[in-house]
Amino acid sequence: MTGAPSGGSGRFIVLEGGEGAGKSTQAALLSAWMAAARIDHRRTREPGGTPVSEAIRSIVLARSDLDVSPMAELFLILAARAAFVRDVVRPGLAQGLVVVSDRFALSSLAYQGYGRGLDLDEIRRANAFATGGLEPDLYIVLDVPVEVGAWRQRRDGMPPDRIERSGTDFLERVRDGYLALARSEPGVRVVDGSGAPEEVHRQIRSLLMAEFPATFATARG
Q1: Burial of 211 from C-beta contacts in 10 A (0-12 / 13-18 / 19+)
Q2: What was the pLDDT predicted at 174?
Q3: Range with the lowest mean pLDDT among 2-11, 50-59, 86-95?
Q4: What is the full DSSP assignment across the chain?
Q5: Spans of all domains in the chain
Q6: What average pLDDT score do residues 75-88 get?
Q7: CATH number belonging to domain 4-211
Q8: CA torsion, ordered 120, 118, 147, 160, to nearest 10 deg
Q9: Nearest Cα to 75, choosing from 48, 54, 56?
Q10: pLDDT of 161-194, one tens digit each?
Q11: Burial letters for 69-85: b for 16+ Cβ neighbours within 10 Å, e otherwise?
Q12: 71 pLDDT exceeds 80?
């Protein structure tokens, strides 16, 4: 992807993956781990994190009664992302925080690109405009088979949102897209998300300590 990592003393870490991959669970475990190590951080999500972005999130995910085209869906998400970068990510990085987000720009390439069929280069250009060229220091893609993610959501009593109702074929394309992006894009790592939450968390901790030893020097593996 175009752009440059966040730079400075802060770090921008993004958890990615398909539905039921465990992103929210792993974000919570990372936050608890960093709090125990007294690492200043902010946990957030995307689309979301600001009042404007949360309002857009409710349209994108909850309003299944609306006929939202792939292009309109993309630009709604980009509008939320622009507010998210301005009001959450850049201020956090300026304060030297580790910003941990559940999703960012890689989701647009996977969902609206590979999933919906929009042109990947057009998405990259639009995203670079929305973010001012900001890129995470690291994307961690939690990879699980689509059927495993669906089972987890049924187990947890989570009704499918508007995007999840796009069907299994769509979700398979999204998963394939994430794996293809991990092979082609810099700063993207894949972690097998199929194991128990603590096992996956250990893998993520090890990855972060290896990638950013200075940032996580006070943390224990």
Answers
A1: middle
A2: 97
A3: 2-11
A4: --SEE--SS-EEEEEEESTTS-HHHHHHHHHHHHHHTT--EEEEESS-SSHHHHHHHIIIII-TTS---HHHHHHHHHHHHHHHIIIIIHHHHHTT-EEEEE--HHHIIIIIIIIT---HHHHHHHHHHHHTTEE-SEEEEEE--HHHHHHHHHHTT----TTGGG-HHHHHHHHHHHHHHHHHSTTEEEEE--S-HHHHHHHHHHHHHHH-TTTTTT---
A5: 4-211
A6: 97
A7: 3.40.50.300
A8: 130
A9: 56
A10: 888 888 999 999 999 999 999 999 989 999 999 9
A11: eeeebbebbbebbbbbb
A12: yes
Whether residue 28 is predicted with pLDDT greater than 70 in this model: the reply is yes
* Confidence band for 2, pLDDT divided at 50, 70 and 90: very low
What six digits make up the tokens of 56? 């857009």
